[in-house]
Design goal:
Elements (H helix, E strand, L loop, with lengths): L12 E2 L2 E4 L2 E3 L2 E2 L1 E5 L5 E4 L2 E4 L10 E11 L11 E7 L13 E4 L2 E2 L2 E2 L1 E5 L3 E4 L2 E3 L14 H4 L2 E4 L5 H6 L1
Antiparallel strand pairs: 1-4, 2-3, 5-8, 5-14, 6-7, 8-9, 9-13, 10-16, 11-12, 15-16
């Protein structure tokens, strides 16, 4: 029995647009759970669900921020083209924090730059929600549109994610 209709999941990858009526529409680059080779799938009530990263079954998954999606050039005209994505990585999953049960993630850096990969879009499993690690105060220049760029430490939350909520 399904209590709610099918759940649609979208990941937005959008550069700054505008200005429209004097205001620019901010860029949006969502975060996603990516299968990096060993992730498993399970079936729950006939719908595809992915193993919960909160049960210690996170091997094979990483979190990334999707920056660009583009088709692979070439191929036959009637064959579907594989799309690729440019992903900026966050750290691998470790044990959840004991105070709140969320996983702490950091931007993966090498030589002062973010680590980036080109992956098949088919490796992206679903969107995830990250919360910035707050200090003593929230800076005034943090916005929904800029906080992923201004902070480097985040928490992955199971509490605002419909897919994870129904899986648990």
């Amino acid at each position: 029995m399904q209590l709610f209709g099918p759940s649609l999941d979208a990941i937005y990858v959008r550069p700054v647009r505008g200005p429209k009526k004097g205001l620019a529409i901010p860029a949006r680059f969502d975060t996603a759970l990516v299968n990096v080779g060993l992730g498993k799938e399970t079936s729950v009530e006939g719908a595809t669900k992915f193993t919960s990263i909160f049960t210690g079954e996170s091997i094979g998954y990483r979190t990334g921020q999707i920056r660009v999606v583009f088709p692979l050039p070439g191929g036959e005209a009637h064959a579907p083209l594989e799309h690729l994505a440019n992903v900026e990585w966050f750290s691998e999953f470790a044990s959840p924090e004991c105070d709140h049960g969320m996983h702490k993630l950091k931007r993966t850096m090498q030589d002062g730059a973010r680590v980036v990969s080109i992956i098949p879009v088919s490796s992206i499993r679903r969107s995830v929600h990250l919360f910035p690690k707050f200090g003593r105060a929230v800076l005034e220049n943090w916005t929904l549109d800029s906080v992923l760029e201004k902070r480097s430490i985040f928490y992955l939350s199971p509490f605002v994610d419909r897919n994870m909520y129904f899986t648990l």
